[in-house]
Write a structure and sequence with these properties.
- The protein is α/β, with parallel strands linked by helices.
- It has helices at 7-14, 24-38, 50-57, 61-73, 122-129, 153-165, 181-190, 207-216, 232-240, 262-275, 330-343, 349-359, 362-387, 410-419, 448-459; strands at 77-80, 84-87, 111-112, 175-178, 198-203, 219-226, 229-230, 245-248, 279-282, 307-312, 324-327, 401-405, 422-423, 425-426, 439-443.
- The chain contains 15 helices and 15 strands.
- Strands 4-11-10-9-8-5-6-7 form an eight-stranded mixed sheet, with helices on both faces. Strands 12-15-14 form a three-stranded antiparallel sheet, with helices on one face. A two-stranded antiparallel ribbon has the order 1-2.
- Pfam families: Aminotran_1_2, GntR.
């Protein structure tokens, strides 16, 4: 059966497709052709219906019809009554659904509310601004080949010490250093998942995790997330079918900003142990809490042989550092290490030395992030309520964003926002089934006046 593209998926991949001075049908046809030529929309794929496309893209059905007809006349599309419109020619270059397409440079004049990634912390600015921090130790490594696929021993020790202080007993041999958490997540999943395997995930969940599973060819089953965390009854049913793994976030959840209860964590441990199902736990935001206490994780609830944890220094310090980590038992780390060597040989020594030095200031960085995010949580709530009083969200325990229920089609809202140079990310990007249609994730770190300007543009005020 030909793959069928959802309207939310198409909207994500098209990005900012409308161009000033260009007729909408022409701009839409050009954007679709770019996807086809790049291999992101391979031959045989079935496009959403014209009605669904129009609703998702915030245009008339006639606009979509003209764009489709243009590409059909040029031989790129084929339409058949009852079968829809499929892509007739093109190559299959990459298995992607566009969930991370918004992670690109932002054009001048555009207010980017599509990511919760934080700017560099004051700790990073102070240390890096003073000169080549951490590089005084570079001489110790210049007589080596510079390749440390598992990470510099000094950094593995520093990460292990940090995790141990946070209540997750860890030795350096259980840590593998990666080029950011996205690589850590991909490698952890790749060690457990083969094409066609079923994977259980939260709904909603981190869109980068969903993107990695798509690339791995996994079949994804979503489990709803409530106020206390995963629906454990549905989790039990899903795990009884023996999925290849469970991917979840029990500390600070992205995108909702909530934290699971210990009762849910215990149940996850019980259920996965009973069926011998591995768990990949995303811990990227576990130390970005509103109360200053590091959030609990599955450590101690899930046996080390089944638990793979991934994390990052990007949230605490700066995304530009590109340092992530995997924490697992020694056997699993060895397996992931060999997979990693086929992808890239190692993380740069200089970045790791900087990261080691920054970890000495983890406590200071946590306090700074907590104060900034707590302040912006209040100001963001005030601005959003001022402009959109009907929008609602659950209490936030931590993280970098608000998971907002707009009460309307957030996908169409995001498309409308593009026209006024505001970049948003709607709920379907965080859903394994392109659900969460009324939801919107808003980052917390923007200055109130910037957010007010963005909200004003969206509202038309």
């Amino acid at each position: 059966m030909a793959p069928r593209m959802d309207a939310a998926e198409l909207s994500r991949m098209l990005g900012d497709w409308a161009r000033p001075g260009t007729r909408l049908p022409d701009a839409l046809a050009a954007a679709l052709l770019e996807l086809i030529d790049a291999g992101f929309a391979p031959a045989g794929s079935v496009l959403p219906s014209q009605r669904d496309c129009a609703a998702a893209l915030g245009v008339s059905r006639g606009t979509v019809a003209v764009a489709f007809a243009d590409l059909e006349a040029r031989g790129y599309l084929a339409s058949a009554v009852g079968s829809g419109t499929r892509i007739r020619s093109g190559r299959a270059l990459a298995a992607t659904d566009g969930r991370l397409f918004s992670f690109t440079g932002t054009a001048p004049g555009v207010i980017d509310l599509s990511t919760g990634a934080l700017p560099a912390s004051g700790v990073v600015r102070d240390l890096l601004g003073a000169g080549p921090v951490g590089l005084s130790g570079i001489g110790d490594y210049l007589d080596t080949d510079g390749y440390f696929p598992a990470g510099l021993p000094v950094l593995r020790q520093a990460v292990a010490d940090r995790l141990t202080r946070d209540g997750i007993p860890t030795v350096p041999q259980q840590v593998l250093v990666t080029n950011g958490a996205q690589q850590a997540t991909f490698l952890a999943m790749r060690s457990l998942v083969s094409p066609g395997d079923t994977v259980a995930v939260e709904d909603p969940t981190y869109r980068g995790g969903l993107g990695a599973l798509r690339l791995l060819g996994a079949q994804v089953q979503g489990i709803p997330v409530g106020r206390d965390g995963l629906d454990t009854a549905l989790l039990g049913r899903a795990v009884a079918r023996h999925p290849a793994m469970l991917y979840c976030q029990t500390g600070v959840h992205n995108p909702t900003g909530t934290t699971m209860t210990d009762a849910v964590r215990r149940e996850i441990g019980t259920v996965t142990a009973r069926e011998d199902v591995p768990v990949v736990e995303d811990c990227c935001s576990y130390d970005l809490t509103c109360d200053g206490r590091v959030a609990s994780t599955l450590a101690g609830h899930v046996d080390d042989e089944l638990l793979v944890m991934v994390g990052t220094l990007s949230k605490l310090f700066w995304g530009g550092l590109r340092i992530g980590w995997v924490r697992a038992d020694r056997t699993r780390i060895r397996q992931i290490l060999e997979l990693r060597k086929a992808e890239d040989l190692a993380t740069p020594v200089m970045s790791q030395l900087v990261a080691t030095r920054l970890l000495e200031h983890a406590g200071e960085a946590r306090r700074e992030r907590r104060e900034m995010l707590s302040s912006r949580l209040r100001s963001t709530g005030e601005v959003v309520h001022e402009v959109f009083p009907d929008w609602t969200w659950r209490p936030v325990h931590g993280g970098t964003g608000l998971w907002v229920d707009t009460g309307q089609d957030a996908l169409a809202l995001a498309e409308e926002a593009k026209r006024v140079q505001v970049r948003l990310v709607a709920g379907p990007s965080f859903s394994p089934h392109d659900g969460q249609r009324t939801m919107l994730r808003l980052p917390l770190w923007h200055e109130p006046e910037v957010l007010r300007e963005a909200m004003g543009r969206i509202s038309g005020g």
